[in-house]
Amino acid sequence: SLYVLTKTTLFKETDDLPPDGGDNNFHIDIVPGSKPVFQALRPISQDQLGELWKQLDHLLSKGWIQHSKSPWGASVVFAVKKTGGIHVCWDYHGLNAVTIKDRTPLPNLREMRNQLLGARFYTLIDLKDAYHRLLIAPKDREKTAIRTRFRLFEYVVMPFGLCNAPGAFQRLMNQVLGDLYNICVICYLDDILIFSPNPNKHCRDVAEVLQQLQNHSLYVNATKCHWGQKEIEFCGHLFSSDGMRIASDKIAAVQDWPIPRTTRHIRQFLGLTKYFLDYIEQYAEIAAPLSTLQSLKSAFEWTVKQPKAFDSLKAAVTSVRCLCFEAGEVYFRV
Questions:
Q1: pLDDT value at position 65?
Q2: What PROSITE patterns does UniProt report for this protein, alphabetically (predicted)?
Q3: Domain range 22-103+134-155, CATH class
Q4: Common-topology check for domains 22-103+134-155 and 248-318
């Protein structure tokens, strides 16, 4: 590590509630005239029931949820982790449908990457329980209620799954990083990348960012951070002083993608490859035969053009080169 922070609370367990932010607490504004949304309990297995209770017990012990008498109620859903375990989630589709949307923009990667011109050292910060570091306004907590076989609970801190959560968290991070933003650090939600031209300045930059995080009662997962690297993965791309290229696991995901069988599969594949649009010359032209299959009104026809386009996009992603950063004072001939 390039930097060792002493006498800090940054790396401790998140066993406290975030500070009361007043007007900056998370609010859930509902479309006028909307009624509370509640969902029926879904059948679950004994394994799922055990995992649910473990998760609820953890959230209660932290003070992140509390008992509720709310007229609202989201149901519990489960997802399988890549490691094989069970992930407990809440189905907030009903609440999101009647929530007034927060249009706070998220950072644009194309704009962020040009801030990295001249950087040679990088540190990636992993925040601990990031979303839970925002308190929900007391009047809005009942709207986050979750229905379980044990009883009804509601969140005290911002949970995952709410449509306005990303915008609210990005606003928090913009405030936390303040004048450092785009000078020595960029941030996409809870991904924080510190960049510097030399080791000495990087130590100072890391110290300043960590101090800002501590000032705002945010916590860092030290074992998941990457300190003082010359190449770093950020938002699916590998960055170095040479430029940027696609991360190997993202290339593998494209390589291993099975032949699409439905419109939904086509949309998923194009969504993945479009993320790397800047690397692929004539992307729209190559993808055109697949793009026509995105419409539900069109028949799903996998003839000669579609397999060719599918294979061409795969080949284009797996053969991309490094993209250089745009130098501000350099003129280009087009």
A1: 98
A2: RT_POL (PS50878)
A3: alpha beta
A4: no
Q: What is the mean pLDDT of each run of 10 residues along the chain (334 residues)?
A: 57 86 94 96 91 94 97 94 83 98 91 88 95 96 95 97 97 95 94 96 95 93 93 93 89 92 93 89 93 83 92 90 69 59
Paired tokens of 182: 């785009």
The domains of the chain are located at: 22-103+134-155, 109-133+164-240, 248-318
The pLDDT assigned to 15 comes to 79
Three-state DSSP string of the chain? CCCCCCCCCCCCCCCCCCCCCHHHCECCCECCCCCCCECCCCCCCHHHHHHHHHHHHHHHHHCCEEECCCCCEEEEEEEECCCCCEEEEEECHHHHHCECCCCCCCCCHHHHHHHHCCCCEEEEEEECCCHHHCEECHHHHHHHCEECCCCEEEECECCCCCCCHHHHHHHHHHHHHHHHECCCEEEECCEEEEEECCHHHHHHHHHHHHHHHHHCCCCECHHHCEEEECEEEECCEEEECCEEEECHHHHHHHHCCCCCCCHHHHHHHHHHHHCCHHHCCCHHHHHHHHHHHHCCCCCCCCCCHHHHHHHHHHHHHHCCCCECCCCCCCCCCC
Structure-token match 């991070």, residue found: 173
- pLDDT at residue 2, as a whole number: 42
Give the pLDDT of residue 324: 78
Which pLDDT value is given to residue 333? Answer: 64
138 phi and psi, to 5 degrees? -50, -40
CATH number of this structure's domain 109-133+164-240: 3.30.70.270
- Measured CA to CA, the distance from residue 97 to residue 5 in angstroms comes to 44
Closest C-alpha among 52, 120, 119 to residue 86: 52
